[in-house]
């Protein structure tokens, strides 16, 4: 016979009783609940800028920015600015630099956005009573972060939190990819793949153009330095294009099948109503298909960002 009271089990598996939509939002359990958890940064009131203080992740994130900026340097100063065709330089420069800005913005949004962390330490008697569970119903508690695990949540050992719809932890963005930042991660992989392909194309055009004339006329750098810079750029572009194109494809496949990478690897049987294909894309990117899907600045509130970074109040709030 089932007990007249609800039961609480310490397990690592999720349970379909608590869904992401029905779960308590981060920070709604009272003052002092931190959005970013123990690894967070600057605090303003009850808000905390989400940032994971992981050494490996911070090094990888810094390397990502360095490699993108290196590509910008080679494309602009070695290939485009010395080019004799003004419109060729202008159009390719505007395209490449715009894509690079979008890629870095997507990286920042992925890294600094709460991926869907479950409130830490919410497995209290008071909170359990507020759920108004039916007799015999079972909910699961994560023994590592002492939180009640909603459906499809998994614990991240690096973030030290349970993350809703956790796909994986990516060191290159120094964050988990989860329910709230997956769209920005998809945009990051897409834009990195695009600028990598563009850099490869520009490198090929530049190389064959310089073969026909003197290398000194192609660049302000010496021929040896120019060749080395182009070789490193091509190697970087090939590696980044391969990695991000594959990752972009797997993310789109996961979204269209409404199945995270962890769920696929664990071969978990779906206990939720799947939103497949366009329904899944709309759920992740928000709304019907539009150019806003490609905009990493969507939903960014500048006033809130200033409050989180500088602790200032006042002024108008601007959102995209």
TrEMBL record:
Belongs to the DHHC palmitoyltransferase family. It is a multi-pass membrane protein. This is Palmitoyltransferase. It is found in: Membrane. Pfam families: DHHC. Its main location: membrane. Keywords: Acyltransferase, Membrane, Transferase, Transmembrane, Transmembrane helix. The DHHC domain is required for palmitoyltransferase activity. One of its GO terms (cellular component) is membrane. The keyword Repressor does not apply. Signal peptide: none annotated. One of its GO terms (molecular function) is protein-cysteine S-palmitoyltransferase activity. It is an enzyme of class 2 (transferase). Residues 141-267 form the Palmitoyltransferase DHHC domain. It catalyses: L-cysteinyl-[protein] + hexadecanoyl-CoA = S-hexadecanoyl-L-cysteinyl-[protein] + CoA. The gene is zdhhc7. The chain crosses the membrane at residues 56-80, 86-105, 184-207, 227-248.
């Amino acid at each position: 016979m089932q007990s007249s009271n609800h039961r609480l089990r310490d397990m690592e598996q999720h349970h379909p009783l608590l869904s992401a939509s029905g779960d308590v939002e981060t920070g709604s359990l009272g003052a002092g609940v931190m959005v970013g958890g123990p690894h967070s940064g600057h605090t303003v009131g009850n808000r905390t800028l989400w940032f994971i203080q992981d050494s490996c992740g911070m090094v990888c994130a810094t390397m990502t920015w360095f490699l993108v900026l290196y590509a910008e340097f080679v494309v602009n100063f070695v290939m485009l600015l010395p080019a004799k065709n003004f419109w060729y330089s202008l159009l390719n420069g505007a395209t490449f630099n715009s894509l690079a800005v979008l890629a870095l913005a997507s990286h920042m949004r992925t890294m600094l956005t709460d991926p869907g962390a479950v409130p830490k330490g919410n497995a209290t008697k008071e909170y359990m009573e507020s759920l108004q569970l039916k007799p015999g119903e079972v909910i699961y508690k994560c023994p590592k972060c002492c939180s009640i695990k909603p459906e499809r949540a998994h614990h991240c050992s690096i973030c030290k939190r349970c993350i809703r719809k956790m796909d994986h932890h990516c060191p290159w963005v120094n964050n988990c990819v989860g329910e709230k930042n997956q769209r920005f991660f998809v945009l990051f992989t897409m834009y990195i793949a695009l600028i990598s392909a563009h850099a490869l194309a520009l490198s090929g055009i530049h190389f064959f153009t310089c073969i026909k004339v003197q290398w000194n006329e192609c660049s302000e750098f010496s021929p040896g330095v120019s060749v080395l810079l182009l070789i490193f750029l091509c190697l970087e572009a090939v590696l980044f294009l391969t990695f991000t194109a594959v990752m972009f494809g797997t993310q789109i496949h996961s979204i269209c099948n409404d199945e995270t990478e962890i769920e696929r690897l664990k071969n978990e049987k779906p206990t939720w109503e799947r939103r497949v294909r366009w329904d899944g894309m709309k759920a992740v990117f928000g709304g019907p298909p539009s150019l806003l899907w490609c905009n990493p600045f969507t939903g960014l509130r500048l006033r809130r960002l200033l409050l989180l970074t500088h602790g200032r109040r006042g002024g108008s709030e601007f959102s995209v």
